[in-house]
Design brief:
Elements (H helix, E strand, L loop, with lengths): L7 E3 L2 H18 L5 E6 L1 H12 L5 E11 L2 E9 L12 E9 L3 H11 L4 E9 L9 E5 L3 E3 L19
Parallel strand pairs: 1-8, 2-3, 2-5, 5-6, 6-7
Antiparallel strand pairs: 3-4
GO molecular function: glycosyltransferase activity
InterPro entries: PRTase-like, PRTase_dom
Protein name: Phosphoribosyltransferase domain-containing protein
Amino acid sequence: MAESEPEREVLTWDLFGTASRELAETVADSGFRPDLILSIARGGLFVAGALGYALDVKNLYVMNVEFYTGVDERLDLPVMLPPVPNAVDLAGAKVLVADDVADTGATLKLVRDFCADEVAEVRCAVVYEKPASTVACDYVWRRTDRWINFPWSTEPPVVTREGQVLDA
């Protein structure tokens, strides 16, 4: 690693297995029993799947949100991409929002606020939370201020596709 390059947090697949299990145990130990898990795609898909199995929750929803465009590069505001779940489908449920990282907190806030008026309760679970996050997550495996190398996004794509975002 070059001297000028900042140190990174590295999450391997094996460590993700440990992290997701420990995160699930934290949720379970709190007494919270979600009716469904709302995953923030794409990184949150892995977290939601692991939590779903560990917490015996089969009802998983997905919110597609675009925010990051590169390493520490992001849009001005996060944007929900279609298909957007119908908030009425979440009515009265205890919801666990799952994502890989709470960096600025903007994506989590968008998703949490989207469903907050419809659901009985909403809590957030992340593998990592950064100090700058505007959302204090209910369940966090580890806190860091470093850039994180996730096992699913460390390697470049096998193919590069431009213009994938579909207009609603």
